[in-house]
Amino acid sequence: MLSARALSPGAPLQILDAPLPRPQSGQVLVQVKACGVCRTDLHIMDGEIPACRYPVTPGHEVVGIVHEGGTRFARGARIGIPWLAWTCGQCEYCTSGRENLCERACFTGCHVDGGYAEYVVADERYCLALPERYGDAEAAPLLCAGLIGYRCYGFAGAAQRIGLYGFGAAAHVLAQVARADGRRVFAFTRGGDSAGQRFALECGAHWAGGADEMPPQPLDAAIIFAPVGALVPQALRAVKKGGRVICGGIHMSDIPSFPYAWLWGEREIVSVANLTRADGERFMSVAARLPIRTAVRTYRLEQANEALGDLRAGRLSGAAVLVPGG
Ligand SMILES: [Zn+2]
Ligand SMILES: [Zn+2]
Predict the structure, then answer these.
(1) How far is CA 210 from the centre of its chain?
(2) What is the number of the ligand closest to the CA of 227?
(3) Do residues 32 and 120 touch, judged by C-beta distance below 8 A?
(4) Same domain, 160 and 210
(5) Which one, 156, 218, 262, 291, has the greatest CB density within 10 A?
(6) For the domain that residue 212 is a member of, what is the CATH number?
(7) Any idea which ligand is nearest the CA of 103?
(8) Are residues 25 and 110 both part of a single domain?
């Protein structure tokens, strides 16, 4: 089977012919129909995720068909494979409803091979059933961009005015969910990115501007999806007293120092890490209920490096998705 492998940090992916993986007990062998391209995959390629194992096949937004193995899903069923691949079930985090923080967690496309391939194996307990209303490519971005965005949204609590910094795959899904909940979304893009700002407004944002601008009204919460540490003090200045700044990325450049006065007033900064299986179930039921429009650009598996290059350069509106044989 064809797979796109990260052999070592700092090198482009290699398109290789690899043997078909064999499912062990409790695992399913899945034929990949679509796999989303996430910013985390760039961090893995660049060697910025210290726990990552090389060589590894990236890809943790996998939509595919159960080919064999396992007992939970019927053969031929369409399932999703997300970032969380395995947890120990025994550590203090696993036993307190926070398996996303498990001390020994394994992640798809990081510790175990992911979906930049024609086939992948996965522990069936961590796979998700997918709402039927989405096509394969359209469902892929729900599995990380959608899911992590939704977990961040939970950290925003009852915030009515929510800022989203970095308007890519995660924000374009979350803007639609928040809008359907009656919240107001303020979208922040790279300065001068008028196409990105137009896209944000199309996705339901109430206002869109550059990341260096102040919103027309103070925000109750801000979620940062862009991997830019300088946005943390920027977002703190945009939230009102008691407001929260939520960092949704797995990696960020250093946060510059800033005056304590910007944090004063019980403002908070938190990070959101990974996801739990319960997050996955909750978000998929939201996605089944709401007609979320995912903007995708599809690439053949052999074009994985091109897709990653477009993501890195900010050339995408929405999400890149690899389609094996497409
Ligand atoms: Zn654990
Ligand atoms: Zn991701």
Answers:
(1) 22
(2) 2
(3) yes
(4) yes
(5) 156
(6) 3.40.50.720
(7) 1
(8) yes
Residue 35: nearest ligand to its CA? Answer: 2
Separation of first and last alpha carbons in the chain: 15
Ligand 1 centroid, distance to 103 Cα (angstroms): 5
Instruction: Report the number of distinct structural domains present in the chain.
Output: 2
**84, two tokens:** 């969380």
Among 254, 271, 288, identify where a domain stops: 271
Query: Do 64 and 134 lie in a common domain?
Result: yes
Ligand of minimum distance to the alpha carbon of 170: 2
Cα 171 to ligand 2 centroid, rounded to whole Å: 13
Q: How far apart are CA 37 and CA 44, in angstroms?
A: 12
Strand partners of residue 128: 80
Q: Give, for all 326 residues of the chain, the pLDDT tens digit.
A: 999 999 999 999 999 999 999 999 999 999 999 999 999 999 999 999 988 999 999 999 999 999 999 999 999 999 999 999 999 999 999 999 999 999 999 999 999 999 999 999 999 999 999 999 999 999 999 999 999 999 999 999 999 999 999 999 999 999 999 999 999 999 999 999 999 999 999 999 999 999 999 999 999 999 999 999 999 999 999 999 999 999 999 999 999 999 999 999 999 999 999 999 999 999 999 999 999 999 999 999 999 999 999 999 989 988 999 999 87
The percent of the chain in helix, strand and coil, each rounded to the nearest 5, is 30, 30, 45
Provide φ and ψ at 143, rounded to 5°: -80, -15
Ligand 2 mean position, distance from CA 173 (Å): 13
Residues 6+ apart with CB under 8 A from 282: 150
Name the closest ligand to CA 95. 1
Q: Do both 138 and 279 map to the same domain?
A: yes
CATH number of the domain at 288, please.
3.90.180.10
How far is ligand 1, taken at its centre, from the CA of residue 101, in Å? 7
12 in the same domain as 135: yes
pLDDT of residue 326: 72
Domain coverage including residue 180: 146-271
Whether residues 103 and 185 share a domain: the answer is no
Ligand nearest to the CA of 93: 1
Distance in Å, CA 25 to ligand 2 centroid:
26
Same domain? For 138 and 281 the reply is yes
**pLDDT reported for residue 222:** 98
